[in-house]
Amino acid sequence: MNRLVPFFAQLVLGEFEPPLGYASRIAHANSFGPLRLFCAMFGFEARSIRRGDPEAIERLAGHSGVDPRSLGRFGFALAAKGREAMYGAEMIKSSMHSKTPLRYCPHCVCADIENSMERPSAAACLRAHWSLNFVTACEVHSVELVAAEPTDGPDFGHYVECHRNHIEAARSSSRSLAATECDLYFARRVLGVCQRPFSLDPYPFIPAFKMVEALGFLGAQSQRRDIGAVDRAKVRQAGFEIAKAGVDGIMAHFDSRLPKNGPANIDVYGRLAHPSSIMNIVLRNIDHPAFSELSTRLREHAVTHLGVSAGKEFLGRVVDTRSRISVAKAALEHRLSAADVVAKLIEGGTLDSEASKSHPA
């Protein structure tokens, strides 16, 4: 490739800056005007930069003097069928990412401007995780993210240039909101930030995210999914608390949902018909090694508490054995009295006479 003429003004790439945000800043730093004029002037397509297309990234990096691999790291490249996209270090659902309106922390943006010698539109730096729909708050300042004017599209530099007063006002009136531990965990996975080992690490990003939400909704008073972003974050955090203890914690949660009297049913695991139920999430990922222990334990749990019969298929596998069944259920199934069932268990050595006292006829 021929050597590209460097732009007069060179900018340091932000640690988690998406490529289109950087393109907007470099355009304003060099007085090329709004992003759309900059792209027209140099033959760029904004969507190619946003996607992190190698050719567009190489050219922009060559003009700007930055490392192309770092510049393209947060390109939003859609995968097959457009339902998923590689973003940072993870494959995420495309619906988890929003290109407009841009969201930002007014405290971070004002700090960028105040700590830079560049013009405001070239100093204010977007962060990749602000575009994740599930991120509702700034980790640094514990305030709710603010939406930019949608008319400015992806050109954040233009928004800063035209709405500096709005940004200052947003900083003064910002609403306190702490980022949840759950959302921080998933955001850091996308950013590729090293963090202490965690029980959800082996699971692929999308199933892990769905599983946490499903666990949260299991314990929620309302099962409605059409709730606001802040309330949904609280639901996810509740599920995250359950998942913290790994498979043991998840199974303990299902144990807590068993009825104190009477037989259990499949609702212990949530609505089976719902596409985002725990059972459906596990079933869709049954062949992934990370789900091996959870699927086995769920199968054993269902055999024990739901009386799933041997030879029946459950969670993609045929059940080989029945580990436990209640005396009452055995009596009903074999048309015997409870006393006869207990007697046969004692006779076969399965139940000792002392234990039989807890099963009165």
Account of the 3D structure:
The longest helix is centred in the middle third of the chain and has 15 residues, at 205-219. The chain has a three-stranded antiparallel beta sheet, with helices on one face. Strand 6 (313-314) and strand 7 form a beta hairpin. The chain is mainly alpha-helical. The chain is 45% helix and 5% strand. It is elongated, with a radius of gyration of 28 Å.
Topology diagram in text:
Blueprint: H1 19-29, H2 35-42, H3 46-51, H4 54-64, H5 68-71, E1 77-78, E2 84-87, E3 90-93, E4 103-104, H6 106-114, H7 120-123, E5 146-147, H8 156-162, H9 164-172, H10 181-191, H11 205-219, H12 229-243, H13 246-256, H14 278-284, H15 292-306, E6 313-314, E7 317-318, H16 327-334, H17 338-347
Compose a concise summary of this entry:
The protein is mainly alpha-helical and 361 residues long. It has helices at residues 19-29, 35-42, 46-51, 54-64, 68-71, 106-114, 120-123, 156-162, 164-172, 181-191, 205-219, 229-243, 246-256, 278-284, 292-306, 327-334, 338-347, and strands spanning 77-78, 84-87, 90-93, 103-104, 146-147, 313-314, 317-318. The protein has a three-stranded antiparallel β-sheet with strand order 1-2-3, covered by helices on one side. A two-stranded antiparallel ribbon has the order 4-5. A two-stranded antiparallel sheet has the order 6-7.
